[in-house]
Amino acid sequence: MWFADKWEDFELIDCSRGEKLERWGREILVRPDPQAIWDTPREHKGWQSPGAKYTRSSSGGGSWEIRKLPESWKIRYGDLTFNIKPMNFKHTGLFPEQSVNWDYIREKISSAGRPVNVLNLFAYTGAATLAAASAGASVCHVDAAKGMVAWAKENAKVSGLSDKPIRWIVDDCAKFVEREIRRGRRYDAIIMDPPSYGRGPSGEIWKFEDNIYRFLELCREVLSDEPLFVVLNSYTTGVSPSTLTYLCQSIFKKRFGGKSRSEELGLPVTMSGLNLPCGATCRWER
Fold first, then answer.
1. Residue 167 half-sphere exposure, CB side, CA atoms within 13 Å?
2. Of 26, 148, 228, 257, which is most buried by a Cβ count within 10 Å?
């Protein structure tokens, strides 16, 4: 497991009975988490008085109960700053467990000793984009949701990275990659965080298990002759880290060699001293 254990502005205080108690800066939130299937005592006072709590509905979806919470606020990870706000589907605009990948991305780029061109797909609110840009890379940031790309631009601004060479693209990721292949554009590194399920702007259905292999084959075609790395994230239930390794080895090693390593991502839990699993990542590097 790769541990996201360098946070100061985020803390996973406790988790129990399908929920987690978190500190985002000074704000305390309770959100659902399907991994927390244990029934341990809820001894921290934050369980009784969070600033906001997200509750799932029996008919699907859910809603926030806001008790005492600003409309939005900022947290920092090292020299990066992120705007946080409660969203639909329990989200806040940031996945803190991904910080361990931001560290990896920055280290690989800063130690490359050459210019690095990065493609970030399903790029959400831009944390990985900012990590890559802050390490000196040129980045193409792609997401199908216009609002997410706008949020990512805001994060770049508050992180002091607005002047970095970042292309902000609102587009379906697969269609964008296909066009990049035709245009002959190439990238030294690819980061991707594909959803488990989704619909494209024209109603196209994306299902991780059905579409990821073909999508990775497309991505292989936009890698440069000497690629640096590929980071593949997955939050899809039932897709193990070993499955991600098999995918990346099957597709990238055949042409470029190199190796893949996959692990669960974990957040340390303050109250128990244990770690909550939070999805998985595969890192292929040449």
1. 13
2. 228
